[in-house]
Structure formats: structure tokens, C-alpha cells
Amino acid sequence: MVGDWLEAALAAVYGEQGVWTGGQGRRYAAALDALSAWAGPGPARFFRAPGRVNLIGEHTDYNHGYVMPMALDKDILLVARPRSDAVVNLWNVEPERFPARTFVISAEIPPSPLGDWANYVKAAAQAVRRAAGRELRGADIVASGPAPWGVPPAAGLSSSSALTVVAALAFAALNDLALPKLALARLCSEAEWYVGTRGGIMDQFISILAERDRALLLDCRPQPGERPDAPRYEMRPVPLPAGYRFVIFNSAVPREKTKSQFNVRVAECRIGVALLRRRSPGITHLRDISAEALGLSQAAVLALLDDLLPEATTRQALAVQRVLDDALNAMFADFRLEEDQVYRVRRRCRHVITENARVLASEAALAAGDVQRFGALMNAAHESMSRDYEASCPEVDLLADLCRACEGVLGARVTGAGWGGCVVAFVAADAAADVLAQVTARYRAATGLPGEGFVCASAPGAGEVTV
Ligand code: NG1
């Protein structure tokens, strides 16, 4: 039996639907039981951070561009109790999948092997320790993220960022470190580089700053703030259109290529900037290239890219052309260009530049109630991810096609980094259940892979759940 106290606290987070809240209550109680079993009985605190679905704006964040994510009601939960030493004992309610780990908090925590789940918690602990500038107390922690409440891992729904965010929240709170939301979001974005990818700010920002029933239009370009190390970001809530739902389908394709390909894409974008800077030295990020900024039509911007950027290049070719000058080397100080990698610069830049325009057009379409236009922009975003960014795969393209073939679907696109992961479809509310059933069945029949999906519900941003 779950106490009324817990029910009431959880209804405030997850909404009033009895079944859902009841299930969450058992999940919270089970996590607390696990902590008592592994670390002994005693008081503990709950923290949660949601995963997200990005509605449009892919691979734009690290180019200082625009994104439009929305937090899900699927989250990572931590139940935590502070310790008097700096040790962190970390357990998971799914121990076979996520084995127990122990480490000591310091300003330089040695990482576990690549891909280990504890690295996200270490990333958070190290970043909070550095921000605090003093020794931190460790904690006994149990993490909980099993289906249907958790964020499906490796699906492009930001389970990893949710884990980083919730761990940072917990370490800050258990050490009485007051971090404003924006500071926490920035800290978490940089913290996650610890795991080896040079991601942008989208996932951690939406996990922390989300509001229920709203997506967030986030401008990922830092603006001057009170201090040079505390920039501001512009963001606007985007009300979700009544009468429509977002339905998510997991391709169940392992995202093996994501880690290596992600960093290649970051490099391709930076090479694009370096080449464009030879013509316009004011350019620092692909965000600076737009029809408005250049006073050109979109067609003229694309023609300019054709003129200035090579379809493909290599480190050696760039060195011969003396593109790799001091300025560019400085941009790559944290990053190595590989000898044997072909960088397909023009089409990558075309994706980012057109995607930024699509995000702003989506915001305008939704504000005007033009749901057909928003659906069409999602479809165009998928094509661009697939053809220009080459971040899709046959299974994900199939899922998007299966969605579009259903009555009631206005648009569908790959969401998250890509190379597998999920497709998000924008669907008339009364068709959502049918679309979910039809697409999952057809996908399973066509691929032999598990066809799983769900209708999204939105949730508020990360925080402590006081019970
Ligand atoms: P996912 O799909 O969660 O791996 C990654 C990046 C985002 C963003 C998207 C692509 C991290 C933590 N997340 O998200 O910042 O660049 O890809 O739009 O690196």
C-alpha cells in the first residue's frame, strides 16, 4: 500500500490520473525499499529529472541555433541519502542492466569504461564539486528508470541527460549548494562532455526548465549576462495545440554509430564555419548564416553554400588550402580532425541552416494554429536529417513513412541525435491510439524488431519531490 502522502505529492508532478499516479507511487516506494535493503533504513530524499522529445531543431544546439523540445512524463528518479564521507554508492532497481558502482567525489573523478551508466553520475558529481569549490559529501543512491515510467535508454529521448541532471540536483541539494535553474542547466550541459560527446545544451535545459503542457523554443546562442561566465539564453514557451498529440515510436535500432558520428558532425559544422569566415570574418557559428542575417532569399543562401563549401574534404586538404590556420586550430583546441575521415561539409551546413529556419517557422505556424504547416515542416526536417545530415537509417526512415501513411498524421520525423532512436509523429488526438497500434504492428512485421511506442504526456522540469 502506498501512503496518501506520496499519492498527493506525486499527483502534483504527474497529474491526477489515478492509475498513473498509483503506479508511480509503487515505483517511488520500491526505490525507497531498495535503498533500505542495500544501504540500511533511514530518511532519504527523492529527486527526478524528465527525458524529452525534441519536436523540431536537430543538431542545431551546438551550432548556437534554435530547438523546440518538450519534457516527457517519463523520468529518472533518484532516492538519496547523504553520507559523512565523499563516497558515492550507486545502485539501480535494474541491477542486471545497470550494476552497482562506487566512487569518491573529487574535482577529477576517473571515468568508468566508455558507455558505463555511472559515468553520467560521475559527470554530475565532478561538475558540482568544481562549482562548489569545496569538498562535498557523498551519498547512498538508488536510481530508478524502468518502463513504463523511466526514459527509454539509447532512444534519443535523453535518458542520459536526465540521469546527469537528476544526479547534479541531488548532489547540490544534499550539500546545501543553492544553484539557480539556469546555472544548473549550464553546469549539466558542460558536465556531460565528460562522457566523450560534444553535445549542445538542449537536453539538460529542457529537463530543468520545462513547464507542463508547453514545449520550449530555446535559442541556444549565449547572450551577454551579468558575468562573462553566466550568459543568458532567450527562450519562449510554446503552447501545444489542442486536439493533437505527439506519438513516439522507438525503432529499437542500437545507436552504435551515434558516439563516433556525432563528433564527426560537430567537426563538419566547425569546418563549415572556418570556410565561411574567410568570406565573412564575423561568423562564429552556423547560426550566423540565415536569409535574414545575410539579407538574401533562402535560395540565394543555399547557392552561397554551394559556392563556398566543398561537398567533401579532409584534414589534409584543409591544411593544404591553409584553412587550418591559427584561428581554426584554436576552434579545434578541444577536438582533433582525423586523418582518414572524409568531412561532408556542404550538406551538413545546409541541414543546420535550413533546420534553424524550420524551427522559427514552426513556432510561427503553431502560434497561428496552422497545424498542417507544422506537420509539413516536421516532414521536411526528417528529409534533411536523412539526406543532408545522414543521421537516419533505413528502419527510422521506414517508421517515418509508416506514420505518414496513416490517417490523422500531419507529420513525422526522427527525434534526437539519430542513427536509430525514435520517430515522433504529430497526430490528431482522436487518431492517436489507432496510429500507435497500426504503426507498431506494421513496423514489427516489416523488420522483426520490437515495435514499441507511446502517446506523449508532458511534465514539469526536474526537481526534488518532497513527500
Ligand atoms: P540525444 O538524442 O539525447 O543523444 C544529442 C545531444 C543534443 C543535440 C541532439 C541532436 C547530448 C547530451 N545531446 O541528443 O544536445 O545535439 O543530439 O539535436 O549530447
Write the layout of secondary structure elements.
Layout lengths: L3 H11 L3 H22 L5 E10 L11 E2 L1 E14 L4 E6 L8 E4 L13 H15 L6 E6 L14 H16 L6 H11 L10 H8 L4 E6 L3 E5 L2 E3 L2 E5 L4 E7 L7 H20 L13 H4 L3 H11 L6 H6 L5 H6 L13 H23 L3 H18 L5 H11 L4 E7 L6 E7 L3 H16 L4 E4 L7 E3 L2
Parallel strand pairs: 4-6
Antiparallel strand pairs: 1-3, 1-15, 2-7, 3-6, 4-5, 7-10, 8-9, 11-13, 11-14, 12-13
Helix pairs in contact: 1-2, 3-4, 3-5, 4-5, 4-6, 5-6, 7-12, 9-12, 12-13, 14-15
Number of strands: 15
The low-confidence parts are: none
How much helical structure, as a percent, in the residues? 40-55%
Overall geometric form: globular
How many helices? The count is 15
Strand order of the largest sheet: 5-4-6-3-1-15
- CATH fold-level name of the domain at 4-54 and 68-210 and 459-465: Ribosomal Protein S5, domain 2
Rg, Cα atoms, Å: 22 Å
For the sheet with most strands, the description reads: 6 strands, mixed
- Specify the CATH class of the domain at 4-54 and 68-210 and 459-465: Alpha Beta
Associated small molecules: 2-acetamido-2-deoxy-1-O-phosphono-alpha-D-galactopyranose
Distance between the termini: 15 Å
Order of helices and strands: HHEEEEEHEHHHEEEEEHHHHHHHHEEHEE
Structure commentary:
- The structure is a single chain.
- With 467 residues, this protein is α+β, with helices and mostly antiparallel strands.
- Among the domains are: 4-54 and 68-210 and 459-465, 2-Layer Sandwich (Ribosomal Protein S5, domain 2), CATH 3.30.230; 257-366, Up-down Bundle (de novo design (two linked rop proteins)).
- Helix content is 42%, strand content 19%.
- It has helices spanning 4-14, 18-39, 118-132, 159-174, 181-191, 202-209, 258-277, 291-294, 298-308, 315-320, 326-331, 345-367, 371-388, 394-404, 432-447, and strands spanning 45-54, 66-67, 69-82, 87-92, 101-104, 139-144, 214-219, 223-227, 230-232, 235-239, 244-250, 409-415, 422-428, 452-455, 463-465.
- A six-stranded mixed beta sheet has the order 5-4-6-3-1-15, with helices on both faces. A four-stranded antiparallel beta sheet has the order 12-13-11-14. A three-stranded antiparallel beta sheet has the order 2-7-10, covered by helices on one side.
- A hairpin with a 6-residue loop joins strand 12 (409-415) and strand 13 (422-428).
- The protein is globular, with a radius of gyration of 22 Å.
- The two termini are 15 Å apart.
- The model has no long low-confidence stretch (mean pLDDT 93).
- The protein binds 2-acetamido-2-deoxy-1-O-phosphono-alpha-D-galactopyranose (NG1).
